[in-house]
Every structure is written in structure tokens, then in C-alpha cells.
Amino acid sequence: MLESMSPTRPRRGPAPNAAMLFDRSKVRAKIKAAHADEAAGEARRPQVLAILREALDHGRQHARRALEAKGSGLVCAGQLAFIEDELIESIYHYVLTYVHPARGQETEPPCAIAAVGGYGRATLAPGSDIDLLFLLPEGASARTQNIIQSILYILWDLGQKVGHSTRTIEECLSEARGDFTVRTALLEARFLLGDAARFEAMRTRFEREIVHGTAAEFVAAKLAERDARIAKAGRSRYLVEPQVKDGKGGLRDLNTLFWIGKYVYEVREPAELVAAGLFSRAEYRLFVRCEEFLWRVRCHLHFLTGRAEERLTFDHQREIAAQLGYSTRGGLASVERFMKHYFLVAKEVGDLTAIVCAALEEKQAKPHAMLDRFGPFLPTPTAITAGDFAIESGRVTVAAEDAFDANPVNLVKLFWVADRNGLAIHPDATRLVTRSLKRIDAKLRADPEANRLFLDVLTSRNTPEIVLRLMNEAGVLGRFVPEFGKIVALMQFNMYHHYTVDEHLLRAVGNLADLEQQRFSGEHPLASEILLSISNRTALVVALFLHDVAKGRLEDHSTAGAKVARVVCPRLGLSDAETETVAWLIENHLVMSDTAQRRDLGDRQTVATFAQKVQTLERLKMLFILTVCDIRAVGPGVWNHWKAELLRTLYWETEMVLAGGHSTIDRRRRVAQAQLELRRGLPNWTDLDFVAYAERHPQAYWLKADLEQQILHAKLLNMTEVEMPAPVTHIVIDPSRGVTELTVIAPDHPKLLSVIAGACAASSANIVDAQVFTTTDGMALDTIVVSRAFDYDEDELRRASRIAYAVEKALAGDIELKEMVAARGGGQPGARQKTFRVHPEVTIDNTLSARLTVVEVSGLDRPGLLFDLTTALSGLDLNISSAHIATFGERAADVFYVTDLNGEKIASAGQQDSIRRSILKVFEPQKEELAPKAGKR
């Protein structure tokens, strides 16, 4: 029987001192006193509202103080639900006594009032909606309708967010048949007050007519709903700004497990799932621990923000970490320790989900799972049925309970078998793994067979990412490779990385397998070609697996990671040469991306310096593949066609140097090929026109700009010749990356980039990237990438048009940029940026270029920063030859190639100090009155 809908009080009681939360008798007495003066009339209603509001605020403040005094999250949620119960009862009593009193023979309750949704579970977050069901008799009287209306009006006047439905029993059942949201709400309905008999009648019919015999369809609907919710919130449970309620591993996942268990096993409380056989006692205790932690975080988040905020953003993480008592320890900041705990809880919620899904399969309430998201890749396995492993319900499991005790190597072999056969692992086997983790000791870690099996999984061409993630979530990976265990659930407190460190590493390994299987739809033709020629794939995979393994230490993670590799690789069976290759790749895994994005690739010194670092073609190939896989694993939208083109250019230029000038495709051939492709893309041009146009671009342009850009530039430059004079602006919306590209064609001059940046800042446009080209006849082709501000393309296009108009006006000298930027908030970090601390640094180097001085700037990004930096450089009478703009989350990392007005390097120490002082001054906080809030970088 579904006893949960019986007329009971909250299953989590309010605490012994309930009157401290809401003293119902005192509230009634005050309301009665307010009505003693019969002449007061309508003036009494504001008095009643004030009485109710005071009681409500007092109760919520008491619950908040208890929570902030290291109280329980579940107790807080239960207290808030209790306060709401008492409030609604007081309003109900007030309305029936003073507003719509009974007349004549009216003695029956007008309706039944029930709590549904989260409120039905007797748990409320501070910002939660109050979901109510008013259960009416057939042909409800006008008085009943008026009573409901009065109750709702009072709740709304008190600032309550009320979701309500008014239905008869027949209407409830009819809606529940076709709407699983309604069915779930009724499943959790909790009687509050009014007509208890009517509520019981609804409950009995709901169970008999709706629930009975429909477990399979309910489970399918709830799991499909969960998939859609997670797809919207973010498919990974390891997103660094997780959704506490709706994200993967969040509270809604626990709710879904309970709804399914309640529906299928017909229980009232989560604890009853133990007797039903779904959870062991230890697993139920884990359920409660996860629920308690997530509720504590959610209640703190709502109180902190003053609203129903469910995303645990960077700017709230630090404050909640402090409230929960986390401290800095062992190289990890307090916020990083808090978030590591959060992600471990999210992982445990995932473990519970797997257990429930497997149990449902056994009850024929859910289809069987598969391992590979791309479909089966091997024939049906037949060889597993002998020995230590077997197949049960289409999953790999152990043949005997002592499989791991008898041979601990099986703790690794289980995952090897799953990978080789493309099968998921049975949760019963996973449960046994978690109980046997103590078997993973120094002896097993030194076992050659265990290491061989693990290396086979790691270097598999099937689905290594999925199998490694299963190993990680079962606890095997972190114990078998303790160095990896240190970064499990470790977040990087910055806006650049979207995932925890362990999730990032597993995705990087998965990217390599996807690249080999052509799963990127031809996005990386060069990478796919290079992969075929790499002589030591194993070293490359191991380097991907370990490249960030030393994050969270005081020492630089690249240097420390190389030391880790020299310990781990020999254990896995790699030779001395392979070990050194892995160590070198880890120590230099950021060099190629840094050089490609922050150096002038048209400067021969850039390529020469990089080639000297790499030294061999094999290293170049491996570093290129590692860099592609690494960047793609950072997060959605981080990889783009610009980065791809820059990396390809750096690869080809370096290959030519390392091959002694005899590249497989030399520079002239690549330029010629690029021009041929552009000629094909401009079929309406004459050959004479095209030859003249091609001569306007230096060689570096053809190597760095992709075909799509080249076609756009050709059309825009042609417009300036035959249709309209420069400047010309063009807008491209890129929804997949969440950015908008603005291309500007204008006569080049030293302050051009500064003017464009200022116009963007004055228009509240946040610049996240920039690419700058100049033709041989002095026309600039600048593409500025700004963060998207609107969800709908039409709105974003209108905004981008305003930015383009501002750029055109600024270039014409029609607007005063400094005042406009200041008015928009130039000089002040946005709300998100204030959360982070980035120490500004300025490096001036005359060795990186033969002709130019390189000024590297790193610091906290903020509104108008690029405008201020370029203005400062121009104010020092420096000519910016090229600029390389990059933003890594909250950190700006910009590089400027400059000369003095005579075209010479900045050699004077005094002049270099002046540059440093001027740029560092840009990062100094501005006075609030000079920089009101608004605007972006």
C-alpha cells in the first residue's frame, strides 16, 4: 500500500521546540484580538497579514540561525516545511472563522488541502515553491471556491511562490493517467487539513486505478525525464559549477530514485527500501548522507542568495565553504576541499542510481543497459561464461562471491573483460568491488599481470573513457594508481576548466579514442593523419592520462607530473625510453597551445624557439595530438576553428624546421593550396582580380586564416573597393560556442585595436578572443569575439548590430570612448570576476622576436581591460605590430608585439620599467564613483 499519502505530519519532525518556529496558538490569539474591534472592518486584513508575516519571518530566521550554527540540512528543510504547514493551517482557520464563516447547516470541511511536490515530502528549501492541491467535492459550492481564493490571496500577499491545482477526485485520476508529472505529484501528496475522508478516497483509487500494474511505464517515463533534465543541466556530474537540484548527482536524482522505488516496491519511506531488498543498510545510510549533504548546501545557497538559486557558482562556492567550516589544507584551498566533497557525493549518488537501475532490470521494469554509447562493437560474448566471470542480465559479473578474495587481480580484470566485450558491469559486481577495495594494496599494484590488464584498458581502442570512468567511480582507479587518486573529484577553482581534474583526464583519453575512430566527423584531418604515423601510441595515451595528475600541489603541476610519470610508467611496463617520452610530454603539455595562441606565428623566431624545445618530429606529432585532446577536454565551446588553425600552422612551420627545410608539405605549397581553395570559393571572380587580391596578403595570412575566414575577408575587402568605403563590419552568430564574431575592415593605424576594444567595452561587450591581420596595402582585418548575451539569435543579432554601429562611430571619431567606457563600468571587475584572485604580471622579452619586443600581460579580466591595455601602450608612444588576445576563464593572457615610433625594439631598462608600471596601474582598483557598475571586457 502507498501509505505515504495518509494524513500524517512531516516525516522529518520540526524539532522539540516547535513553538520557536511557529507558535500557532499565539498567532490565533493575535488574530482574535485584531477582530475584537468590530468597527475596524477592512482595516483588520493588513493587521492579520502583519501578524502572519511576523510569525513566518521569525520561524525562517530561527531555521536559518540553526543551519548556520552547523545544523542539519534535512532538519532545516523539515523545519521550513513545518513552518509552512503551520502558516497554512493558521490562514485556513482565519478564513473559515472570520472571512467565510459557515452558514446554517454547513458542518463538513469545504475541501481537502494537500501538499505536493517537494513540499509533499515535508522538505522545503528557503526559496522553494509551495505546491498545493485543493481536492474538491463534485459541484463545489461558491463558498468553497471563495475559501480557496482567499487562502491563495493571503499566501501571495505574504510573498509566497505558490503553485496550486484545484481538482475533484475524477479530475486528479484523469490527469494522472496522461501526465507523469501529475502522477508523481499525487504519489507524494501529503494531507494537510480539511476533508481527510476525501483525501483517503483519492489515495485509494489512485493506487488501485493508476499505480497498479503500471510500474514499467512509470519507470521508463521518469528515467527519460531524468535524461532530458541532465542534458539541459549538463551531462557530467563533474561540472565545476554544478546544479545542486537538477544536475547529475544532485537532489533530483535522489528524488527520482525514491519515486521509482516507492512506485515499484510500494513503500512509504526510503528506509523501507532496505526491507524491500533494493538497498543494503550501508547503501541506505549512504542515501541519507548524500541527501543530508545536498540539502545543507542547497539551504545555504538559497539563504545566501535570497532566491531559489540552484547553481553552485564560483562566487557562492567560497562563501558556502566558509559557512560549512572547510579550511585550507595540503595545498588545497578551502573552496577546493569543499567542492571535492561535493563531487564525491555526486559520485555516490551515481552509484545509488546504478544499483536501482539494475534492480529494476531484474524486475523487468527497465531495459538492459549497454556499455558503449556508440552501440555494440563486438559480437555477443560467449567466452566469459567460464572461469571467474559470467554474464547476468546482459552485464558482466563475477561467478562467485570470493572472486576478488581468491585472486585480487580480478579487481582489474573485471573492467578488462567489460572493455573487451562491450558490456556494462552488473551492480552486484560493482558492490562486491567496493567491499573489496582493501585488496588493492602494494602487492597488487606491483603485480605484472594486473598492470598489463590495466594498461590494456587504458590503451584500448574501444571505449577506454567509459571503462576508466567505471573504474574511477567504483574506487578502483584511485587505489590502483594512488597518484590519480589524489586528484579524484578535485576541482580547479577557475572559470576556464568545466570539469574536475579526474573527469578532464578521462575525457582527454576518450578524445584520443574518438579521434582514432573518426567520431569527430572530419574535424581534425591533420590529427587523424598524424596518428597513423606515431610510432609509440602507448606513451601518448599514458601521457594524456597523467598530464594533469599533479594538480593541487604547491609545485608546478607540469614539473611535478613529470616526476610522477617516472614512478608510474615503469610500474605499468613502459621502457626507460617510453617513460622519458611520457615525462617530457607532461612537462611540456602546455607549450604548444601557449605558443600557438600567444605568439606571432609569422615571426620566424617564434617557430625557431618552439622547434628548439621540441627537437624531434616524433615529439612534435605526439605533442600536437596531446594538445588537441587536452583542449577539447576542457569544456564545451573551448575548442574552436581558430585554435585548430593556429595549431596546424605551428605544426607545419615547426615540421619544416625539424625536417631541415624539407617539410612533407612546404610553406609555399601550403600557401598555393590555400589560394587555390579560395579561388574555388570565389567562382564569380576573374583570374586577374583574384591574382591582384592574393598579392595583398602576406604569406602568414594564408597559413593562419581558414578558408571560411578567407572567403569572408575577400568579400568584405571587395565591398570597400566597389560598393562602400571602409570601415566595414560583419557579424557572425556562433550558438555552439556561445560567442558572436565581429569582423572589422578598416585602414590600419596604431590605435585601431584600442578603438575597437573601447567601442566594445562601451557597448558592454565582453571580448574573449581576437585575431588581427593586415594587408600589404595597409588594410586591417580584425575579428573580435565577444561573449553571447542572449539566448535567442534574433536578440543577439540586434545586440551585435549595436556593437558594430558603435565600432563604426568610434572609428569615425563621433564618440568619446573614455567617458563611455567609464560610464559602462570600465576599470571594475564584474560580479563573477571579483570571486577570483589573479596576481597581475608583465613580462618584457627581446629574445622572442628578431624585430619586435614582446610584452606579455596576465591578470584578472574585467570590463574594458583590453581597451585600457592598448590605450596604455599607445600612450607610451608604442606601435602595436600584432596582438594575441586570449582569455582563460577569469584570467586575461594577452601578448603584444611592439616597437617604438622609430620601429626599434624597446631596449632601454628605464623604458621597460615605464611600460611595466603603466600596465600594472591598469590592474589597480578604480574608485567606485569613477567607475559605476556595467560593461564587459
TrEMBL record:
SUPFAM superfamilies: ACT-like, Nucleotidyltransferase, Nucleotidyltransferase substrate binding subunit/domain, Poly A polymerase C-terminal region-like. One of its GO terms (biological process) is regulation of nitrogen utilization. This is Bifunctional uridylyltransferase/uridylyl-removing enzyme. Residues 741-822, 854-933 form the ACT domain. The keyword Magnesium applies. Uridylyltransferase (UTase) activity is inhibited by glutamine, while glutamine activates uridylyl-removing (UR) activity. Its cofactor is Mg(2+). Residues 501-623 form the HD domain. One of its GO terms (molecular function) is phosphoric diester hydrolase activity. It comes from the Bacteria. Signal peptide: none annotated. The keyword Nucleus does not apply. Its EC number is 2.7.7.59, 3.1.4.-. Belongs to the GlnD family. Has four distinct domains: an N-terminal nucleotidyltransferase (NT) domain responsible for UTase activity, a central HD domain that encodes UR activity, and two C-terminal ACT domains that seem to have a role in glutamine sensing. Modifies, by uridylylation and deuridylylation, the PII regulatory proteins (GlnB and homologs), in response to the nitrogen status of the cell that GlnD senses through the glutamine level. Under low glutamine levels, catalyzes the conversion of the PII proteins and UTP to PII-UMP and PPi, while under higher glutamine levels, GlnD hydrolyzes PII-UMP to PII and UMP (deuridylylation). Thus, controls uridylylation state and activity of the PII proteins, and plays an important role in the regulation of nitrogen metabolism. HAMAP family: PII_uridylyl_transf (MF_00277). It catalyses: [protein-PII]-uridylyl-L-tyrosine + H2O = [protein-PII]-L-tyrosine + UMP + H(+); [protein-PII]-L-tyrosine + UTP = [protein-PII]-uridylyl-L-tyrosine + diphosphate. Keywords: Hydrolase, Magnesium, Multifunctional enzyme, Nucleotidyltransferase, Repeat, Transferase. Residues 1-383 are annotated as: Uridylyltransferase. The lineage of its organism: Bacteria, Pseudomonadati, Pseudomonadota, Alphaproteobacteria, Hyphomicrobiales.
